[in-house]
Design a protein that fits this description.
It is elongated, with a radius of gyration of 40 Å. The chain has helices at 3-27, 31-42, 47-53, 60-99, 118-132, 146-149, 186-194, 234-249, 302-307, 324-332, 345-351; strands spanning 136-137, 143-145, 169-170, 178-180, 199-208, 219-229, 256-263, 266-277, 284-285, 290-300, 316-323. Helix content is 40%, strand content 19%. The strands form 2 sheets. Strands 1, 5, 6, 7, 8, 9, 10 and 11 form an 8-stranded mixed beta sheet that branches. A 3-stranded antiparallel beta sheet has the order 2-4-3. By secondary structure, the protein is an alpha+beta fold. The chain has 2 domains: 3-99; 118-351, 2-Layer Sandwich (BirA Bifunctional Protein, domain 2). Bound molecules: 3,4-dihydroxyphenylalanine. Residues 183, 185, 224, 263, 266, 296-298, 319-321 line the site of 3,4-dihydroxyphenylalanine.
Length: 371
Amino acid sequence: MSEAAALKKSQDELSILKEEFSAAIATAKDAAALDEVRVSALGKKGRITELLKTLGALAPEIRKERGAALNILKDEISSKLEARQKELSHAELNTRLEKERIDVTLPVRPQPDGRVHPISQTIDEIVTLFGAMGFTVAKGPDIESDYYNFTALNIPPDHPARDMQATFYLPHQGEHPTVLRTQTSPVQIRTMMKEKPPIRVIAPGRTYRCDYDMTHTPMFHQVEGLVIDEKIHMGHLKGCLMDFLRSYFGIKDLPIRFRPSYFPFTEPSAEVDIGCSRKSGELKLGNGGDWLEILGCGMVHPNVLKNCGIDAERYQGFAFGMGVERIAMLKYGIPDLRTFFEADLRWLKHYGFLPLDIPNPALGSNGTTAR
Ligand code: DAH
């Protein structure tokens, strides 16, 4: 065969190949089919690859021409493969967009009618903050023996401190008179009698006193805290309460004052005040030159440790107690204590929380009422 005839034959061969592959590329239905075409043309044993391998055996003049033609074919097929690949992935995306379309005209899901009561919310917040400091929750009964509520807390029967708390007495049940607990402090006793130090608990719960006005209801809530270990001192008490109060109220530089006081179950005892301002006639927490009493605390009295069978020479500890309503009212701008327990749904809707609400001290409890 003449050189010219041989070249012609090879060109014909290449244009047939080109048509064949172009058609296969154009009709490939998906990425897998397209890949098959790529392999059969340009893969290790692909037809174009095989032809390229034969170039070495050809006479130099023919090799030059045929090599150029083969490379052009290879480039053409490559770019066709690439273009089809893009087309296919576009099409795939479009079908997905079509299939997974979101109907933005659907009405929003209705909000649940129920709300989390501000007391539950506040207790949750307190438990979370103390939980982060390694405290666990302890519990005790609402109907309590007068021994746990008073006597074991270093308040003997004839002690005048009993008159500090207007107690609801119930009929005797056994050896000691029975009361509705006036404070959460008896949970300290129950915990120390049950557990060995180190102890680190908080005890939120209901408490009862015979009182009723804007700032007192016969049932209210307290949270008690108790830490017992070796080498615990007043510095731990201060640090712990300062961290808690500043985090709870969300005020980094909230002024905090420990003022000497008296509680029968602690020695020394202190009352804790936080900084506020009353200048504008409205109470504002923070650095305002005024003070507001917020909780009671102290180092656990050695008599209390002894009453619970704890070696007072080896162990010390601190305790504190605070009113849940009071700190909820302050944080969420709720003016009247009595409204907490009136079960008025309008009140609950206003001050209550949705389960996933993130409380914001700058706003009202449901994020809508400015303080
Ligand atoms: N139980 C006290 C009350 O109801 C509050 C209290 C004060 C609790 C000092 C404590 C404490 O644990 O150390 O007034």
